[in-house]
Amino acid sequence: MTLVANQAESLEKSLSITIHGLVQGVGFRPFVYRLARRFGLGGTVANNGNGVEIAVCGSAEALNDFVAALRLEAPPVARIVNIEVAASAGCLPGTDFQILPSNPGVRPSTQIAPDIALCTDCLAEILDPENRRYHYPFTNCTNCGPRFSIVERIPYDRAHTSMRRFPLCAACDQEFHDPMDRRFHAQPNACPVCGPRLSWHDGEGYPLAGDCLTLAARALADGRVVAIKGLGGFHLAVDAGSPSAVATLRARKHRPSKPLAIMVKDLATAARFCRLSPEEQALLASPEHPIVLVDRHDTAELAANIAPGLGILGLMLPYTPLHHLLLGEPQAPIALVMTSGNVSDEPICTGNREALRRLRGLADFFLLHDRKIVTRVDDSVARIMAGKTRLLRRARGYSPVPVLLRQPTADILACGAEMKNSFCIVRNQEAYISQHIGELSSAEIFDFYRESINHLQAVLEVTPQLSACDLHPDYCSTRYAHSLNIPRHEVQHHHAHAGAVLAEQGLKGPVLSVVLDGSGYGTDGTVFGGEIYRVDRQTFTRLGHLSHLLLPGGDRAAQEPWRMALALLYQGLGAAAFIEANQPPALLAIAPEKKLFLGAMISKRLNCPQTSSCGRLFDAVAAFLGLCLVSEYEGQAAMLLEHQATLANPGDESAAWPVAILNEAGLLRIDSAPLAALILDDLAARTPIPVIARRFHCWLAASLVALLVTLRHQTQLTDVVLTGGCMQNKLLFETLIDQLRQHQFTIFAGELVPMNDGGIALGQAFIGGAPPCV
Asked: I need a surface site. Which of 282, 394, 692, 760 has the fewest CB within 10 A?
């Protein structure tokens, strides 16, 4: 193809283009190739360590159209950070446009693609009896399939993934090398002839003959527990419509009541079980395919023990061809529980031998495959709140897509929190938040944590010489930071919470920040958790907080909310709280001797630290109402209280509880001391539990708004950041936002970065990596 008549004219119309962002493993090079062919341009395109590099020549008009189309028509999974365009003499006249092999370069700055749900084109192929990939459970193309879970290093080429052990057959090889094909350079490309395969095993690991998917569907329909190797790890699956099957899974996994996620084959089926808004439908069907928390129909044909006491379900759609094919089997249950394939306090299983060893006794059968999972990646969890997607757990589909930092930040490793841990590596102004790691409570999870840090550093080819961590000296993540022997920045827990929102939203501050969570290492000898700060990137000033409650027994109070109920009662009534006649009916279920012993601890302040924790206040009210005296999973009391509040109609709480804001030497305090008497009065008046629960939510929101209005007069600040684990409470979060907007505040909160401790690492990195003077 001849583009121009002479070289001089060509040199005047040649460009060098570098594209940074998520542009490898998403079909970007064939997209560029087809675009160049469309505009009649010559040149080359290649992956390198910096992203995608293009040398292109042609007429000025065609080049302008080409550059505009690069951004406007990019593949759906691609995320372009920036495009650098410069005049060049590198493209010779008369050349065709070619795709060159990858060039590793000196230091990679390209982003890594996350694992992406099966696209509609591939789904159509596996359902087409005439297609050579009919019913093939590892079908993918450049628009979908495994990425982060199989990559060992970049550039993202097949030789650098766990697919290298599957040589391409002739047909797949032709697709792989045809720039006009949807599978051009689709690194996990495979078919039944050359790709990974399924195998079916009994509970002891012995292989069984037969059609794997048919046998798995039959076992699930019979109420059996099946361990399924998926994209980033194993699931344990059972029939979601069978209470006995769910009970069996719960008993074996020692998970008595924590909500279980379910998977259904399509949106039409999901609508049978849940009330779905258009935004929730779009999120369920997005390329990321997270678990979405949605409102459950009262008449849903599901086992009641999937999410006991709650009105929401964690629901997801199939995101791999294996899932689609399994749910499409005639004998398959209409909905499957799909929970993480692990036992308590251990990471999810990834390897076949590992699963057969660790899940023996939990699973009756194993559905395995022989594609290696390089990196564990759990399912992401999201909820639509205040009209936006809010990630509660950032993992598959989202990790490790970086957050672009808009302010100068040093390369740094931020080690994260103890609970809901993720870590963060900043490289070249991009913050790579790891997949969800979990609670650093066992040696196995801590090993997973360290392995994940080493892997991501190797993939990014960066070893930061600066670290950040929490102030709490006993966190495993803090100890890990200390072990690195590099300069370390210790960041207060709630400053990091606020910093995560500043980083994601591109804010400089100062702002007012409301941080509501379970606990954080305080700076005054108490346990923080219900705080209002003036915050910027480098400093935070505590301006207000919830009243202090005693924490009887320390951390044990979080596991036994009845202790917090007694502490709340003591805050309001003093020693009279220990007289049974003054206690709410729910506390009569606790043995008198236990309450007397705790009363002695409280009276003498023995092992009773003070806390302003909003999470523990939720626990106290939930126990007061008899919703949760002993917690079986983190956040259970608060979730049950939120659900009860949603059962009351707006306006049912018309007898609003009074708000009291106290000023103690310039530090404002929301007074919770009257709550015990107010709840006791409502109980005595036989006020329905949902109405009391809703009154508490409204009281808390009104108290926070009143405090913020006072602080606005003092500080002249109108920007408010909302963050912390308690902000996952949809009723509280949306009530706060509505009331703050009525008072002309501008509100910011986490979206693609969790507001819970899963976002802490980003805040640590943003604060710890700040230049000395910003």
From this structure: 282
